[in-house]
Amino acid sequence: MWFKRDKTPKAPAPEKKVKIPEGLWVKCDNCKEIVYKKEIDRNLKVCPKCDYHFRISAKERLDLVVDEGSFVEHDADVAPVDFLDFKDTAKYKDKLKTYQAKTGQKDAVISCTAAIGGLPANLVVMDFGFMGGSMGSVVGEKISRAAERSAESGVPLIIFSSSGGARMQEGVLSLMQMAKTSAALARLGKKGVPFISVLTDPTFGGVSASFSSLGDLIIAEPRSLIGFAGPRVIEQTIKAQLPEGFQRAEFQMEHGQVDMIVDRKHMKDTLAKILEFFGRG
Question: What is the predicted pLDDT for the residue at 3?
Answer without folding.
Answer: 52
